[in-house]
């Protein structure tokens, strides 16, 4: 299974082609959606809600809930918010429908790089691209004479200087929550080191020099984080920034707009976005390119699917983008890149690679999320932790028929 890659550098260059009116339809049938909870999804679901009778559930645990919810018959939701990796379980279960007919009828405004094809069929419609990149307090960096970090050596040096100055609670934030988040940070670091996850026949290939280096670099960063870093997800880090508790973090581009929400942020116009650091000079940025978008459930009627798609298109139109330009790096016509997109564009231009979404990568991601914390807490050394993760992956992959 190969998912279509989206080129972020090209996405950032999209320009507006005019706005649509408020919801062009009067919705008379309940439409339920389950998506992540960051600002871009709030903007889209709020725009959908203008059509009426929309029940939008925004939940950062959506990836755990979606497979069972969409496997129900009828599905518990009509619309799902997905990304590279979270699309795979739904595809594997066969619980989402091809969208070619609906795109033909109601998707005239969609651009080609929004259409996510699997085996030739449109299975999702992308609305934005996402990437983890460096966010830092430009005021603190200026006061202390620190340049924007481009390598993790720079990050550690900056963190030490900030710690000595005592200007924030913790110099660094990190999305190191045990499970998906911690695994994602390892994926970033491992790919940044040039690692490959699999050998021949989908066999695991992480217990090596690159894997050990990735873990040890992650561990070195925790000396400058909140000691409760194993419960720290994207929302946790976002709030640390907004409350003035941290000075820098490698955080999702989709969180950048939240820094400037005056009602909840103490650091408006004080956080700058820059390239995701590389593990060392000459290596690629330690991050991955993602897209986020919508899918439509299979286990609903054709009429419900058509209605849900039309509502989704109303939520993903140019008018929504123009009202929420800085909430994401949008793929939707109407987006005008600004300073909040600078880190995402720089990371892509420097060679950041797409997240390697596949069935086997889904199993690897789960094994990493379950196993890395043993190294972080000192319960296992790096090689032992990686060996145990490989063993857990192999067990799951053999059960799934991916490894003989």
What this model shows, in words?
With 404 residues, this protein is α/β, with parallel strands linked by helices. It folds into 2 domains: 20-123 and 291-330, D-Maltodextrin-Binding Protein, domain 2 (3-Layer(aba) Sandwich); 131-288 and 349-400, Periplasmic binding protein-like II (D-Maltodextrin-Binding Protein, domain 2), CATH 3.40.190. The chain is 40% helix and 16% strand. It has helices spanning 8-11, 39-49, 62-71, 84-93, 100-106, 138-144, 152-165, 180-192, 209-221, 234-242, 302-315, 318-323, 342-349, 359-376, 382-399; strands at residues 31-35, 54-58, 79-83, 115-118, 121-137, 170-173, 246-252, 271-274, 288-296, 329-330, 353-354. Strands 1, 2, 3, 4, 5, 6, 7, 8, 9, 10 and 11 form an 11-stranded mixed beta sheet that branches. Helix 2 links the parallel strand 1 (31-35) and strand 2 (54-58). The protein is globular and about 60 Å long. Mean pLDDT is 93; it is low at 1-21.
């Amino acid at each position: 299974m190969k998912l279509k890659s989206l080129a972020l550098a090209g996405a950032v260059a999209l320009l507006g082609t005019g706005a649509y009116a408020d919801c062009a339809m009067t919705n008379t049938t309940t439409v339920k959606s389950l998506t992540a909870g960051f600002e871009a999804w709030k903007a889209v679901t709020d725009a959908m809600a203008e059509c009426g009778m929309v029940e939008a559930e925004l939940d950062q645990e959506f990836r755990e809930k979606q497979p069972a919810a969409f496997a129900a018959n009828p599905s518990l939701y009509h619309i799902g918010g997905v990304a590279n990796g979270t699309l795979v379980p739904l595809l594997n279960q066969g619980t989402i429908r091809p969208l070619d007919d609906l795109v033909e009828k109601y998707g005239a405004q969609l651009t080609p790089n929004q259409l996510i094809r699997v085996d030739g069929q449109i299975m999702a419609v992308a609305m934005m691209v996402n990437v983890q990149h460096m966010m830092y307090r430009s005021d603190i960096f200026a006061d202390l004479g620190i340049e924007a970090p481009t390598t993790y050596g720079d990050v550690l040096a900056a963190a030490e200087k900030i710690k000595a100055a005592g200007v924030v609670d913790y110099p660094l934030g990190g999305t190191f929550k045990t499970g998906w988040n911690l695994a994602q940070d390892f994926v970033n670091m491992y790919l940044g080191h040039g690692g490959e996850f699999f050998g021949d026949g989908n066999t695991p290939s992480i217990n090596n020099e690159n894997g050990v280096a990735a873990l040890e670099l992650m561990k070195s960063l925790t000396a400058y984080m909140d000691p409760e870093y194993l419960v720290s997800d994207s929302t946790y880090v976002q709030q640390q920034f907004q409350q003035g508790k941290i000075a820098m973090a490698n955080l999702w581009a989709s969180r950048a707009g939240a820094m400037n929400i005056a009602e909840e942020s103490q650091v408006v116009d004080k956080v700058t976005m820059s390239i995701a650091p590389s593990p060392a000079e000459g290596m690629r940025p330690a991050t991955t390119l993602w897209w986020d978008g919508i899918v439509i459930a299979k286990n609903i009627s054709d009429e419900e699917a058509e209605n849900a798609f039309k509502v989704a298109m109303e939520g993903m139109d140019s008018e929504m983008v123009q009202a929420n330009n800085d909430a994401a790096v949008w793929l939707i016509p109407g987006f005008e890149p600004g300073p909040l997109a600078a880190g995402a564009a720089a990371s892509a231009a420097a060679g950041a690679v797409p997240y390697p979404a596949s069935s086997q990568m889904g199993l690897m991601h789960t094994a990493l999320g379950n196993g890395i914390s043993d190294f972080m807490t000192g319960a296992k050394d790096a090689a032992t932790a990686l060996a145990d993760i490989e063993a857990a992956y192999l067990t799951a992959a053999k059960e799934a028929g991916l490894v003989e």
